[in-house]
Amino acid sequence: MPRTQKLPLSIVFPCLNEARTLAGCIRRAREACVRAGIEAEIIVADNGSSDGSQQIARAEGARLVVVCRRGYGAAVHAGIAAAEGKWVGFCDSDGSYPEEFFPHMLELARKENADLLLANRLQARIEPGAMPFLNRYVGTPVLSGMIRLLFAVPVYDCNSGMRVLKREKYQTLGLRSPGMAYASEMLCLAARQGWKYAECPLPLFRKDGRNRPSHLRRWRDGWNHFLMIWRSSRR
Question: What is the reported pTM?
Fold first, then answer.
């Protein structure tokens, strides 16, 4: 579909070896949009999977974007760059987020006239084992507080991976981080540009369906988030 037709919503799933969960993520997102009467495309931004994730994406009817540059931020950025929707939503493809929540987020973003809407995991029902203690009670609150202090924006879950934003405005941000710090960089630069920001409670945050360790490295990625926030405040 040509971009000029303004597809209402694109949903991006960054992916690196998520064969166990990817199909379910795609199906739940698509079915929720159909029930809500929202025309949407599903994009899988694959970061070099070797477990059959690319084949699963194609089999499920998603549009596959192959991303050569490694990193979470690189994958999300490439997916958004390829999107055709007026709005873009994205979340992890490990099964931890309720993909069926995207239509509600889109409705709320429109109602609030928000440029960026984030789903707050800390206000959700969190399944046992879904979020490590330090991430939940130390890392995310501290980093979110830092963003509130330095950028005067009401962020309370800066590491949430489920968001909806206006695609055309995203193109003006100039995000640089290819890694996990991309999540904080987006919030900081959006605040500097005066984006209207909103959060909503996530209804459920599940334990992911992986049978391998998470791509997240707590101390390394936490430090990178800290540096990203600090440097963004000095731009």
Answer: 0.92
